[in-house]
Amino acid sequence: WGSYDSVDQGDRFQVKRLIVRPGGKLSLQRHAQRAEHWVVVRGMARVTRDGQLFDLVANQSAYIPLGAAHRLENPGEEPLHIIEVQSGGYLGEDDIVRLEDVYGRR
Q1: What is the mean pLDDT of residues 75-96?
Q2: DSSP three-state, residue 77
Q3: DSSP assignment, residue 49?
Q4: Closest CA to 31 of 1, 4, 71
Q5: CB of 83 closer than 8 Å to CB of 38
Q6: How far are the Cα atoms of 10, 17, 47 from residue 2, in angstroms, in the given order?
């Protein structure tokens, strides 16, 4: 799908830079202990949030509340660059419940 780097972290927050390849998408997932805020810095994002589907371009953002089913996709022809701000009591990668995944992950 792409890659991510952790840019900053502290008490109850983490900031990541995500790069999603053209045509790539993350799993449909939810988190029990964190919310996320996505800011598009380059490219176009297709966001699924609790059944809603909408597109974002540079300088637009989406809030993903705690527990919301969500997915990020890149329908464009150039890499999608997102700044993701996570907030919550636990920010580990094992706080991912995958509801659907094209890569067969659980």
Answers
A1: 96
A2: coil
A3: E
A4: 71
A5: yes
A6: 25, 11, 16
